[in-house]
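Give me the 3D structure for YndJ-like protein.
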Amino acid sequence: MSVLVGLIVMLGMLVVVPVGLRLTGAPELDRIRRLWPLFAVPGAVALWLPRGGPATALAACYALGAVLLALHAPPRLLRNPSKSRAPAEIALLTALVTPSIAATALVAERSGHPLFGFGLGILALTVPHFHFAGFAAALVSGLVCRTADSRAGRFAALSVPLGTLLVLIGYFIGDRAELAGAVVLTAGMWTVALLTWRSIRDRNRDRITRVLLAVSSAVLAVTMVLALSWALGEATGLPHPTLTWMAATHGVGNALGFALCSLLAWRRLQNRTDHEGRTA
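Predicted structure for YndJ-like protein (280 residues):
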């Protein structure tokens, strides 16, 4: 696993997931959020060890935490079946499950064994993909849907999970399915960017929050073009960026410009709402 990919994955493990879980506002996730460092720290250490037994064991610790997080989805789904069909809830359920996909790829990659026919390079890139294009994207689309309760918000909250699912299916059945997933995911993420810029950003007077939301929107608009061009090239044979270039541009942009800026902005919005609630 390259240094760049390892740093991006560490950001996902140690920052993006726990901050995102706090933003859900779901009390039943408080315990797993507090325990998350017990799983994430070994997972982060595993990234920097040579492939083999110790790295695999530490990656398995992270996988255990990811599975425990995913196990919160079925009870939430069954507790209120009608609510589970709401777009924002579908996005949240997707966010709960996607780290387990990343963790499965991490265990296989750290053990040095291909999984389902995928080589170690693809597995290494699957780990950040399902932390950011999976967990962070689904979570933010759900938050946007809750705040900008509109047809566009509901479209974003549904298309991001659907696009993520189609990309995953495309791993197994071919590049054209992956291209379809990239198209759907891009449409959803562009909608998230547009709503963030036009609606959520304009409602806030706090300068830092506005800047964070503006950066996340602008970066997302660019990084999804890169994702679309790569998927199109893979499906058609047209010239397209290499995986190394994608990691350095699309990957870094999504991790820092979109995910981190978005979650920091939403955390500031949550803190302000909590403060206003206490002083009301």
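The CA atoms of residues 88 and 142 lie 4 Å apart. Let me know if you want a second pass.
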